[in-house]
Amino acid sequence: MDFSQLSAPPNEAILQDEQRLYLDLLEKGGTPSAIEAGTLYFRSLFTSDLTTHLAHPENYTRLVSILLSILESDFHTEGARFNAVGAITNMACLSQQMIHLIVDQ
What we know:
This protein is an all-alpha fold. Helices cover 63% and strands 0% of the residues.
C-alpha cells in the first residue's frame, strides 16, 4: 500500500470547500449530532498538520463568532460545547494574531 499521499499537503481548494461546508452547517444549524460533528471537525483541524496550510487568521472571524455563540448557548450539547472550546483553544495556540482575533470578538 502506498501511504505517501497521507502526508502530502492538502489541495487548498478542497480544504476551503470542506471548511465552508462545516461553517455553513454550524451557522445555519442542524441536528445536535451535526453541530457536534462540525465543532469536532474544527477542533481536529486546528490540531493537525493541516494548520500549516490554513489561510490567514483574519479569515476565521466568522468561525470564532460561531464557536463563541455555541459556547454561550445552553441549547447545544455538552459535546458540541466541549469541541467548540477545544477548537478555540487550539486556534489560540497557532499565533499571536489568532489570539487577537479571538479576544476581539
